[in-house]
Amino acid sequence: MNNDHLINRLDRIKNLVAKPLPVAASQAPAARYRRLADAVSGEIVTAPSGAYCRVTTIYPFGHRFGEVSLDPPQQGASVQVASYTPLECEGEALLSDLLFVDTETTGLGGSGAVAFLIGCGSLTPQGFEVRQYLLPDYSDEAALLEQVLTELRASRTLVSYNGAAFDLNLIRDRFIVNRVARDVPCAGHFDLLHSARRLFKRRLNDCTLANVEREIFGYFRQNDIPGHLMPSIYFDWLQTDSTELFPAVLEHNRQDILSLYFLLLKVDRVFRTEGAVLDYAEDIYSLSRVYGRRKRSQNIIANFESLERSSLHPLDNEVIWFHSLAYKRQGDWHRAVELWRQLVDSPGPEVYPAALELAMYFEHQVKDISQALDFSLKAQRVGPPTRHQGQLLEKRLSRLREKLAPAGRR
Asked: What is the pLDDT of residues 139-150, one digit of tens each?
Protein backbone atom coordinates (compact mmCIF):
# COMPACT_ATOMS: atom_id res chain seq x y z
CA MET A 1 0.00 0.00 0.00
CA ASN A 2 1.55 3.30 -1.11
CA ASN A 3 1.66 6.35 1.11
CA ASP A 4 -0.95 8.31 -0.91
CA HIS A 5 -3.51 5.52 -0.55
CA LEU A 6 -2.88 5.26 3.20
CA ILE A 7 -3.30 9.01 3.66
CA ASN A 8 -6.62 8.95 1.75
CA ARG A 9 -7.95 6.13 3.96
CA LEU A 10 -6.94 7.95 7.16
CA ASP A 11 -8.68 11.09 5.92
CA ARG A 12 -11.91 9.17 5.34
CA ILE A 13 -11.73 7.58 8.81
CA LYS A 14 -11.03 10.95 10.40
CA ASN A 15 -14.24 12.35 8.92
CA LEU A 16 -16.23 9.55 10.58
CA VAL A 17 -14.95 10.39 14.06
CA ALA A 18 -17.05 12.93 15.95
CA LYS A 19 -15.32 16.18 16.60
CA PRO A 20 -14.74 16.93 20.30
CA LEU A 21 -17.15 19.38 21.85
CA PRO A 22 -15.62 22.66 22.98
CA VAL A 23 -15.19 22.95 26.75
CA ALA A 24 -17.79 24.90 28.65
CA ALA A 25 -15.41 27.75 29.42
CA SER A 26 -14.98 28.49 25.72
CA GLN A 27 -18.71 28.95 25.27
CA ALA A 28 -20.61 32.08 26.19
CA PRO A 29 -23.19 31.38 28.90
CA ALA A 30 -26.46 30.34 27.31
CA ALA A 31 -29.30 32.80 27.23
CA ARG A 32 -31.25 30.64 29.65
CA TYR A 33 -28.38 30.80 32.14
CA ARG A 34 -28.46 34.58 31.95
CA ARG A 35 -32.21 34.57 32.53
CA LEU A 36 -31.66 32.46 35.64
CA ALA A 37 -29.01 34.83 36.95
CA ASP A 38 -31.18 37.87 36.27
CA ALA A 39 -34.11 36.25 38.10
CA VAL A 40 -32.11 35.82 41.30
CA SER A 41 -29.99 39.00 40.99
CA GLY A 42 -26.85 36.97 40.51
CA GLU A 43 -24.11 36.45 37.97
CA ILE A 44 -22.99 33.55 35.81
CA VAL A 45 -19.43 32.41 36.44
CA THR A 46 -17.75 30.16 33.88
CA ALA A 47 -14.98 27.69 34.61
CA PRO A 48 -13.20 24.97 32.58
CA SER A 49 -15.64 22.37 33.95
CA GLY A 50 -18.86 24.33 33.46
CA ALA A 51 -20.76 27.31 34.78
CA TYR A 52 -22.68 28.26 37.91
CA CYS A 53 -24.73 31.17 39.19
CA ARG A 54 -23.36 33.11 42.15
CA VAL A 55 -25.50 35.33 44.40
CA THR A 56 -23.99 37.41 47.20
CA THR A 57 -26.07 39.01 49.96
CA ILE A 58 -24.79 41.06 52.90
CA TYR A 59 -26.84 41.57 56.06
CA PRO A 60 -25.38 44.73 57.63
CA PHE A 61 -24.80 45.10 61.34
CA GLY A 62 -28.00 46.30 62.94
CA HIS A 63 -30.17 44.00 60.81
CA ARG A 64 -33.18 42.82 62.84
CA PHE A 65 -34.03 39.14 63.17
CA GLY A 66 -37.21 38.95 65.20
CA GLU A 67 -36.38 40.05 68.73
CA VAL A 68 -32.62 40.14 68.18
CA SER A 69 -30.30 42.14 65.97
CA LEU A 70 -27.05 41.49 64.15
CA ASP A 71 -24.42 43.11 66.35
CA PRO A 72 -20.78 43.54 65.40
CA PRO A 73 -18.68 41.07 67.39
CA GLN A 74 -15.71 42.12 69.46
CA GLN A 75 -12.31 41.57 67.91
CA GLY A 76 -11.25 37.97 68.41
CA ALA A 77 -14.74 36.90 69.53
CA SER A 78 -15.18 33.15 69.83
CA VAL A 79 -17.57 30.43 70.96
CA GLN A 80 -16.90 27.48 73.24
CA VAL A 81 -16.64 24.12 71.50
CA ALA A 82 -18.26 22.54 74.58
CA SER A 83 -21.44 24.55 73.94
CA TYR A 84 -22.22 22.25 71.00
CA THR A 85 -21.23 18.87 72.40
CA PRO A 86 -23.00 16.55 74.87
CA LEU A 87 -19.85 15.98 76.90
CA GLU A 88 -17.28 18.35 78.34
CA CYS A 89 -14.41 19.35 76.06
CA GLU A 90 -11.87 22.12 75.72
CA GLY A 91 -11.35 24.67 73.00
CA GLU A 92 -12.72 27.81 71.40
CA ALA A 93 -13.62 28.59 67.79
CA LEU A 94 -13.20 32.11 66.45
CA LEU A 95 -16.35 33.56 64.89
CA SER A 96 -14.21 34.68 61.96
CA ASP A 97 -13.25 31.03 61.30
CA LEU A 98 -16.83 29.72 61.13
CA LEU A 99 -18.54 28.81 57.86
CA PHE A 100 -22.32 28.34 57.93
CA VAL A 101 -23.52 25.84 55.32
CA ASP A 102 -26.96 24.86 54.03
CA THR A 103 -28.09 23.06 50.88
CA GLU A 104 -31.24 22.70 48.79
CA THR A 105 -31.34 19.37 47.01
CA THR A 106 -33.20 17.34 44.40
CA GLY A 107 -33.99 14.63 46.95
CA LEU A 108 -33.41 13.37 50.47
CA GLY A 109 -30.62 10.97 49.62
CA GLY A 110 -29.47 8.22 47.33
CA SER A 111 -27.15 8.24 44.36
CA GLY A 112 -29.43 10.53 42.34
CA ALA A 113 -29.67 13.36 44.87
CA VAL A 114 -27.84 16.54 43.87
CA ALA A 115 -27.33 19.78 45.77
CA PHE A 116 -28.61 22.32 43.24
CA LEU A 117 -28.08 25.21 45.67
CA ILE A 118 -25.30 25.47 48.24
CA GLY A 119 -25.21 28.47 50.54
CA CYS A 120 -22.21 29.55 52.60
CA GLY A 121 -22.28 32.29 55.23
CA SER A 122 -19.58 34.02 57.25
CA LEU A 123 -18.86 37.21 59.13
CA THR A 124 -17.20 40.06 57.24
CA PRO A 125 -16.27 43.62 58.29
CA GLN A 126 -19.52 44.78 56.65
CA GLY A 127 -21.84 42.28 58.36
CA PHE A 128 -22.95 38.72 57.75
CA GLU A 129 -22.36 37.66 54.13
CA VAL A 130 -24.18 34.81 52.40
CA ARG A 131 -22.70 33.45 49.17
CA GLN A 132 -24.99 31.15 47.23
CA TYR A 133 -24.00 28.85 44.38
CA LEU A 134 -26.84 27.78 42.11
CA LEU A 135 -26.57 24.93 39.59
CA PRO A 136 -27.93 25.88 36.14
CA ASP A 137 -27.88 22.28 34.88
CA TYR A 138 -26.56 18.87 35.88
CA SER A 139 -23.65 19.11 33.45
CA ASP A 140 -22.25 22.04 35.45
CA GLU A 141 -22.12 20.29 38.82
CA ALA A 142 -18.34 19.89 38.87
CA ALA A 143 -17.84 23.63 38.33
CA LEU A 144 -20.15 24.49 41.21
CA LEU A 145 -18.52 21.97 43.54
CA GLU A 146 -15.03 23.20 42.68
CA GLN A 147 -16.07 26.67 43.78
CA VAL A 148 -17.69 25.38 46.98
CA LEU A 149 -14.47 23.52 47.76
CA THR A 150 -12.68 26.88 47.94
CA GLU A 151 -15.05 27.82 50.79
CA LEU A 152 -14.43 24.60 52.73
CA ARG A 153 -10.96 25.15 54.09
CA ALA A 154 -9.20 23.01 56.67
CA SER A 155 -8.92 26.02 58.98
CA ARG A 156 -12.67 26.61 59.09
CA THR A 157 -15.22 25.11 61.46
CA LEU A 158 -18.51 24.29 59.75
CA VAL A 159 -21.93 25.10 61.20
CA SER A 160 -25.06 23.39 59.90
CA TYR A 161 -28.52 22.15 60.85
CA ASN A 162 -28.64 18.38 60.45
CA GLY A 163 -25.51 18.62 58.34
CA ALA A 164 -23.87 15.65 60.06
CA ALA A 165 -26.61 13.35 58.80
CA PHE A 166 -27.40 15.00 55.48
CA ASP A 167 -25.81 18.13 53.98
CA LEU A 168 -22.14 17.37 54.52
CA ASN A 169 -22.54 13.73 53.55
CA LEU A 170 -24.24 14.75 50.31
CA ILE A 171 -21.57 17.33 49.48
CA ARG A 172 -18.86 14.76 50.13
CA ASP A 173 -20.58 12.18 47.94
CA ARG A 174 -20.98 14.67 45.08
CA PHE A 175 -17.31 15.66 45.47
CA ILE A 176 -16.36 12.02 44.99
CA VAL A 177 -18.72 11.38 42.07
CA ASN A 178 -17.40 14.46 40.24
CA ARG A 179 -13.76 13.75 41.20
CA VAL A 180 -13.47 17.12 42.91
CA ALA A 181 -12.31 15.90 46.34
CA ARG A 182 -12.42 12.84 48.55
CA ASP A 183 -13.78 14.55 51.67
CA VAL A 184 -15.12 17.81 53.08
CA PRO A 185 -12.16 19.69 54.56
CA CYS A 186 -12.81 21.46 57.87
CA ALA A 187 -11.38 22.03 61.34
CA GLY A 188 -14.57 20.83 63.02
CA HIS A 189 -18.35 20.79 62.74
CA PHE A 190 -21.15 22.16 64.92
CA ASP A 191 -24.50 20.55 64.06
CA LEU A 192 -26.99 22.90 65.72
CA LEU A 193 -29.91 20.50 65.30
CA HIS A 194 -28.45 18.42 68.13
CA SER A 195 -27.76 21.54 70.21
CA ALA A 196 -31.35 22.73 69.75
CA ARG A 197 -32.74 19.33 70.72
CA ARG A 198 -30.57 19.11 73.83
CA LEU A 199 -31.74 22.49 75.12
CA PHE A 200 -35.20 23.14 73.72
CA LYS A 201 -36.89 19.89 72.68
CA ARG A 202 -38.72 19.38 76.00
CA ARG A 203 -40.46 22.72 75.51
CA LEU A 204 -40.76 23.00 71.73
CA ASN A 205 -41.18 19.35 70.77
CA ASP A 206 -40.84 20.47 67.13
CA CYS A 207 -37.20 21.41 66.55
CA THR A 208 -37.41 22.31 62.88
CA LEU A 209 -35.36 25.42 62.20
CA ALA A 210 -38.45 27.48 61.34
CA ASN A 211 -40.08 26.61 64.67
CA VAL A 212 -36.88 27.36 66.59
CA GLU A 213 -36.81 30.78 64.89
CA ARG A 214 -40.37 31.52 65.99
CA GLU A 215 -40.09 30.26 69.56
CA ILE A 216 -36.55 31.35 70.43
CA PHE A 217 -36.15 34.58 68.45
CA GLY A 218 -39.73 35.63 67.69
CA TYR A 219 -38.96 35.57 63.97
CA PHE A 220 -41.76 34.65 61.57
CA ARG A 221 -40.94 34.03 57.93
CA GLN A 222 -43.18 35.64 55.34
CA ASN A 223 -44.26 33.75 52.20
CA ASP A 224 -41.70 31.03 52.86
CA ILE A 225 -41.54 28.04 50.53
CA PRO A 226 -41.57 24.68 52.36
CA GLY A 227 -38.40 22.65 51.91
CA HIS A 228 -40.21 19.67 50.38
CA LEU A 229 -41.20 21.81 47.37
CA MET A 230 -37.62 22.75 46.47
CA PRO A 231 -36.93 19.73 44.19
CA SER A 232 -40.06 20.31 42.11
CA ILE A 233 -39.13 23.97 41.59
CA TYR A 234 -35.70 22.98 40.32
CA PHE A 235 -37.11 20.25 38.06
CA ASP A 236 -39.59 22.78 36.67
CA TRP A 237 -36.66 25.03 35.74
CA LEU A 238 -34.89 22.18 33.97
CA GLN A 239 -37.99 21.24 32.00
CA THR A 240 -39.65 24.59 31.27
CA ASP A 241 -37.01 27.27 32.07
CA SER A 242 -39.39 28.71 34.68
CA THR A 243 -37.63 31.05 37.11
CA GLU A 244 -40.71 32.43 38.86
CA LEU A 245 -40.12 30.77 42.24
CA PHE A 246 -36.33 30.78 42.30
CA PRO A 247 -36.03 34.08 44.24
CA ALA A 248 -38.11 32.53 47.04
CA VAL A 249 -35.90 29.41 47.01
CA LEU A 250 -32.76 31.48 47.51
CA GLU A 251 -34.43 33.59 50.19
CA HIS A 252 -35.38 30.42 52.08
CA ASN A 253 -31.77 29.25 51.91
CA ARG A 254 -30.46 32.64 53.06
CA GLN A 255 -32.83 32.70 56.03
CA ASP A 256 -31.69 29.22 57.06
CA ILE A 257 -28.06 30.32 57.06
CA LEU A 258 -28.72 33.57 58.93
CA SER A 259 -30.73 31.63 61.53
CA LEU A 260 -27.73 29.39 62.15
CA TYR A 261 -25.64 32.38 63.18
CA PHE A 262 -28.15 33.63 65.76
CA LEU A 263 -28.78 30.12 67.09
CA LEU A 264 -25.05 29.51 67.42
CA LEU A 265 -24.70 32.62 69.59
CA LYS A 266 -27.78 31.76 71.66
CA VAL A 267 -26.52 28.26 72.51
CA ASP A 268 -23.08 29.56 73.42
CA ARG A 269 -24.60 32.25 75.65
CA VAL A 270 -26.64 29.59 77.51
CA PHE A 271 -23.50 27.68 78.46
CA ARG A 272 -21.31 30.70 79.15
CA THR A 273 -23.91 32.03 81.62
CA GLU A 274 -24.60 28.52 82.96
CA GLY A 275 -28.27 28.89 82.14
CA ALA A 276 -28.86 32.40 83.51
CA VAL A 277 -30.36 33.53 80.18
CA LEU A 278 -32.98 30.74 80.15
CA ASP A 279 -36.54 31.68 81.12
CA TYR A 280 -38.45 28.39 80.86
CA ALA A 281 -38.40 25.55 83.37
CA GLU A 282 -38.21 22.93 80.60
CA ASP A 283 -35.11 24.56 79.12
CA ILE A 284 -33.39 24.85 82.50
CA TYR A 285 -34.12 21.19 83.21
CA SER A 286 -32.73 20.27 79.77
CA LEU A 287 -29.53 22.13 80.62
CA SER A 288 -29.38 20.20 83.89
CA ARG A 289 -29.54 16.97 81.91
CA VAL A 290 -26.52 18.10 79.89
CA TYR A 291 -24.67 18.91 83.12
CA GLY A 292 -25.67 15.48 84.38
CA ARG A 293 -23.82 13.81 81.52
CA ARG A 294 -20.84 16.01 82.35
CA LYS A 295 -21.03 15.09 86.06
CA ARG A 296 -21.35 18.72 87.14
CA SER A 297 -23.60 18.30 90.17
CA GLN A 298 -23.01 21.82 91.45
CA ASN A 299 -24.44 23.30 88.25
CA ILE A 300 -27.43 20.96 88.49
CA ILE A 301 -28.14 22.14 92.03
CA ALA A 302 -27.84 25.78 91.00
CA ASN A 303 -30.34 25.16 88.20
CA PHE A 304 -32.79 23.50 90.60
CA GLU A 305 -32.60 26.40 93.03
CA SER A 306 -33.30 28.73 90.12
CA LEU A 307 -36.30 26.61 89.15
CA GLU A 308 -37.69 26.70 92.68
CA ARG A 309 -37.39 30.48 92.84
CA SER A 310 -38.86 31.26 89.43
CA SER A 311 -41.40 28.53 88.68
CA LEU A 312 -45.03 29.60 88.93
CA HIS A 313 -46.22 25.99 89.07
CA PRO A 314 -45.21 22.90 91.05
CA LEU A 315 -42.23 21.17 89.49
CA ASP A 316 -42.75 17.83 87.78
CA ASN A 317 -41.72 14.75 89.72
CA GLU A 318 -39.25 13.87 86.97
CA VAL A 319 -37.47 17.18 87.52
CA ILE A 320 -37.44 16.79 91.30
CA TRP A 321 -36.12 13.22 91.09
CA PHE A 322 -33.29 14.11 88.71
CA HIS A 323 -32.10 17.01 90.84
CA SER A 324 -32.42 15.04 94.09
CA LEU A 325 -29.66 12.73 92.86
CA ALA A 326 -27.36 15.72 92.41
CA TYR A 327 -27.85 16.62 96.07
CA LYS A 328 -27.04 13.01 96.97
CA ARG A 329 -23.82 13.09 94.93
CA GLN A 330 -22.84 16.32 96.67
CA GLY A 331 -23.45 14.75 100.08
CA ASP A 332 -26.36 17.08 100.92
CA TRP A 333 -28.45 14.36 102.54
CA HIS A 334 -30.86 16.77 104.22
CA ARG A 335 -31.98 18.26 100.91
CA ALA A 336 -32.01 14.92 99.08
CA VAL A 337 -34.18 13.29 101.77
CA GLU A 338 -36.53 16.27 101.72
CA LEU A 339 -37.10 15.80 98.00
CA TRP A 340 -37.44 12.01 98.23
CA ARG A 341 -40.10 12.38 100.94
CA GLN A 342 -41.94 14.77 98.67
CA LEU A 343 -41.86 12.20 95.85
CA VAL A 344 -43.07 9.20 97.85
CA ASP A 345 -46.20 11.15 98.75
CA SER A 346 -46.96 11.99 95.10
CA PRO A 347 -48.29 9.69 92.37
CA GLY A 348 -45.97 8.76 89.55
CA PRO A 349 -43.17 6.41 88.51
CA GLU A 350 -40.70 8.27 90.74
CA VAL A 351 -42.35 6.87 93.92
CA TYR A 352 -40.53 3.53 93.73
CA PRO A 353 -36.95 4.84 93.30
CA ALA A 354 -37.55 7.58 95.89
CA ALA A 355 -38.80 5.03 98.43
CA LEU A 356 -35.80 2.83 97.71
CA GLU A 357 -33.39 5.74 98.19
CA LEU A 358 -35.01 6.53 101.53
CA ALA A 359 -34.72 2.89 102.56
CA MET A 360 -30.99 2.89 101.75
CA TYR A 361 -30.50 6.23 103.49
CA PHE A 362 -32.09 5.12 106.74
CA GLU A 363 -30.32 1.75 106.69
CA HIS A 364 -26.80 2.91 105.88
CA GLN A 365 -26.61 6.59 106.89
CA VAL A 366 -28.92 6.89 109.92
CA LYS A 367 -28.91 3.22 110.99
CA ASP A 368 -32.66 3.41 111.56
CA ILE A 369 -33.65 -0.10 110.46
CA SER A 370 -37.33 0.37 111.29
CA GLN A 371 -37.67 3.33 108.94
CA ALA A 372 -35.61 1.54 106.32
CA LEU A 373 -38.08 -1.37 106.46
CA ASP A 374 -41.08 0.97 106.24
CA PHE A 375 -39.79 2.58 103.04
CA SER A 376 -38.83 -0.79 101.58
CA LEU A 377 -42.39 -1.97 102.16
CA LYS A 378 -43.60 1.24 100.51
CA ALA A 379 -41.49 0.38 97.48
CA GLN A 380 -42.91 -3.15 97.48
CA ARG A 381 -46.50 -1.83 97.52
CA VAL A 382 -45.78 0.41 94.57
CA GLY A 383 -44.26 -2.50 92.71
CA PRO A 384 -40.74 -2.90 91.29
CA PRO A 385 -40.49 -1.99 87.58
CA THR A 386 -38.66 -5.21 86.68
CA ARG A 387 -38.44 -8.79 87.93
CA HIS A 388 -34.75 -8.38 88.77
CA GLN A 389 -35.44 -5.28 90.87
CA GLY A 390 -38.19 -7.22 92.62
CA GLN A 391 -35.75 -9.96 93.55
CA LEU A 392 -33.28 -7.39 94.91
CA LEU A 393 -36.03 -5.77 96.94
CA GLU A 394 -37.00 -9.13 98.46
CA LYS A 395 -33.40 -9.65 99.57
CA ARG A 396 -33.40 -6.17 101.12
CA LEU A 397 -36.63 -6.88 103.00
CA SER A 398 -35.28 -10.21 104.28
CA ARG A 399 -32.09 -8.56 105.48
CA LEU A 400 -33.94 -5.72 107.25
CA ARG A 401 -36.36 -8.12 108.95
CA GLU A 402 -33.41 -10.23 110.10
CA LYS A 403 -31.79 -7.13 111.61
CA LEU A 404 -34.98 -6.24 113.46
CA ALA A 405 -35.58 -9.76 114.79
CA PRO A 406 -34.80 -10.34 118.51
CA ALA A 407 -31.39 -11.92 119.11
CA GLY A 408 -32.92 -15.17 120.25
CA ARG A 409 -34.85 -15.63 117.05
CA ARG A 410 -31.85 -15.19 114.72
From this structure: 999 999 999 999
The Cα–Cα gap between 318 and 285 comes to: 10
Under DSSP, is residue 181 helix (H, G, I), strand (E, B) or coil? Answer: coil
CATH 1.25.40.10 domain extents, the chain = 281-409
Nearest to 271 by CA among 94, 73, 66, 86: 86
CA–CA separation, 194 and 86 (whole Å): 9
Q: For the CA atoms of the chain, what is the radius of gyration?
A: 31
Task: Give dist(CA 230, CA 106) in Å, integer.
Answer: 7
3-state helix, strand, coil in the chain (%, to 5): 55, 15, 30
Burial of 337 (0-12, 13-18, 19+ CB in 10 A): buried
* Predicted TM-score (pTM) of this structure: 0.88
> Dihedral, CA atoms, 214, 117, 57, 164, nearest 10 degrees?
50
* Residue 117 DSSP SS3: strand
Q: Which of 314, 343, 313, 306 is nearest to 328 (CA)?
A: 343
Q: For domain 281-409, say whether CATH 1.25.40.10 is its number.
A: yes
Neighbours of 131 (CB within 10 A): 19
Determine contact, residues 202/283, Cβ cutoff 8 Å: yes
**pLDDT grade, residue 30 (50/70/90)?**
confident
Domain with CATH 3.30.420.10 in the chain: 27-272
Fold for domain 27-272?
Answer: Nucleotidyltransferase; domain 5 (3.30.420)
Q: What is the pLDDT of residues 368-401, one digit of tens each?
A: 999 999 999 999 999 998 999 999 999 999 999 9
C-beta of residue 109 within 8 angstroms of C-beta of residue 14: no
